[in-house]
Known about the structure:
The protein is α/β, with parallel strands linked by helices. The protein has 21 helices and 13 strands. GO terms for molecular function: hydrolase activity, hydrolyzing O-glycosyl compounds; metal ion binding; oxidoreductase activity, acting on the CH-OH group of donors, NAD or NADP as acceptor.
Amino acid sequence: MKLTILGGGGFRVPLVYGALLGDRAEGRVTDVVLHDLDAGRLSAVARVLSEQAAGVPGAPAVTATTDLDEALRGADFIFSAIRVGGLEGRAADERIALAEGVLGQETVGAGGIAYGLRTVPVAVDIARRIARLAPDAWVINFTNPAGLVTEAMSRHLGHRVIGICDSPVGLGRRIARILGANPREAWIDYVGLNHLGWVRGLRVAGRDQLPRLLADPDLLGSFEEGKLFGAEWLRSLGAIPNEYLHYYYFNREAVRAYQEAEKTRGAFLRDQQERFYEAMRRPDAAALATWDNTRAEREATYMSESRAAAGAGEREADDLSGGYEKVALALMRAIARDERTTLILNVRNHGTLSVLDADAVIEVPCLVDANGAHPVAVDPLPDHATGLVCAVKAVEREVLAAAESGSRTTAVKAFALHPLVDSVNVARRLVEGYTGAHPGLAYLT
Ligand code: G6P
Ligand code: MN
């Protein structure tokens, strides 16, 4: 079985390969093709993988190419994990928004819109090529903003593209753990858009355990989301929001904390990863050790500014390792081997949330089998959540329209309609700032 990884020179690729190395079952991936535009990054990551594979019998063979069509042909699965504009682009997304006094963040608010505007045209081109060159492949989209990018690709690939995120499963696991439940036995009632969802219940043996958490100040106080959002606010909501909702519910504090931070997250990661890729120019560099040190440093500072601002502390170590690669592998196994399972994924709505149309990509528990991911029926969201979901989906639709038409006016509309952008004039200046900074936005006229 052949797996192609787009963005194959990316820093997180060794995590994916590490997960593949642990898979000994029949029907596992035998060939990995790394694709990237940057040959230097590709060879750095390929060296890490070859050290990871040393001494592992049956390790998947790795090849690398900068030719996209060659990478796609014959693929059974394609992981799309690209970062258009690189971390330099992410840093600019963050900086330009913060200078306007609005949230500058990778996926939420103005920064997420800029990133989406840059990424959608590239993702659509990839999707078109896949439809032509590898029509039977399943595409697992890691690329952020994951919900928006998955929806863009689904217009060309239908249900064969599925978006993933590690945050809902991580949240479900933390809630289960604090309640003393086994995460494997728990049903997590979660729904929304990517980075904009709520856990409304957690059922064990058919009984909802979440009220027990919401009623217990000690439990809430020792729980990460309890610290982040405050026990009182969680009780008011009657649900546990995805951590990214901190940017909505505590927007002022988050913006201020980011403005006061020495570096934005993107700038921090850019500098840190530059050091890794730079070190890898030396032919004698210990690839895996260099990568692993950089990774440890990255994880220790995960979302640290907003967490510190909220007094939420750092993430527990075992939560950090349960990320994207595990979700992606579980999804790939379920499809490839018809190993039925349930995962929270980004898929077409199909009537799951009645306030959105059938083609809107949402994040929801899905049954997964050889036929793909099937969203399960969920209770409707409360009005306040429906309001946010509909507003942000409307923004995503303007981003898709701007990417398709190249209209700057439509891009302004996307920013202006976002609940975290507080003036049309700010939206206009953001489009000025972003088109000036990003060559990838030159198509907006
Ligand atoms: C979580 C989110 C991802 C996001 C990442 C950012 O894992 O689910 O969508 O990309 O955090 O982490 P970073 O270390 O890049 O700031
Ligand atoms: Mn995510």
